[in-house]
Amino acid sequence: MPRNSMHANWFAPLLAAGALALAWPHQDPVSGTGAPAAARPPTEAERRAETTRQMLGAWMLERYEHPTETVLPGDVRGCALVSEGYIMIEFHARRPARLPVGEQWVMLYQSGLYQWLFESDTRITCATVLGHGNFSGDDAYEAPGTPKQFDIEVGKVNLVLSKPDGVRLVFNRLPPRDKLSEDTLMRMEELRALRGQR
Asked: In order of start, what are the domains of the chain with their CATH numbers?
C-alpha cells in the first residue's frame, strides 16, 4: 500500500473526531447546558453586605424633616458614624419658645450609640448601648437595649434614615482624611504646632 494512502487512512479518524467535537454544543461549566448561564441575582447576604459597605463611614446631617413641623436647615446640626454592627447618631436642634418677655430658643439634643442589624433589605433595628437626650421635654438617659427602627436609603453620597413617626434624617457623606478642605487642614496644623510649643 502506498505510504501516502496509509497516512490518510490513519489520519481520517482523527479528522472525524475533531469535526465531531467542533460540531457538538459545548456545555457551560456552571449551568450544565449548551447556553451560557444567565447572571444569578444577588443573595440576601450579598445585598445586605453591599448596603453595609455603602453605609460605612462618617455622615453630616443635611436636613431634619418632620411630618408636621417646619424645621429650617440652620436650626438642626447633627452627624452619624456607621461601622459594622454599630451606629452613633448625634444631633442638636433649636425651636422658638414664645414667652412673655419675648422669643427665646428651646435647645434640644439627642446623642446615642446603638447596635444595629438588618430587619429587611431596607430596614434596620437598633438597640441602645448609651443614649441621652431631651427631645421628650426632660433630660433623660435611654435604658440600654431600647429599640429603634429606621428605614434606610443609601447611595454614594447620601444616607436617609426614616423613623416610623415620619421623621427623616438626611445625611451627606463626609470626606475622608485625605480629602479634607485646605482650611480644615490648616487649622489642624496650627493646633499641632501649638502643642509642639508647650
From this structure: 44-175 (2.40.128.280)
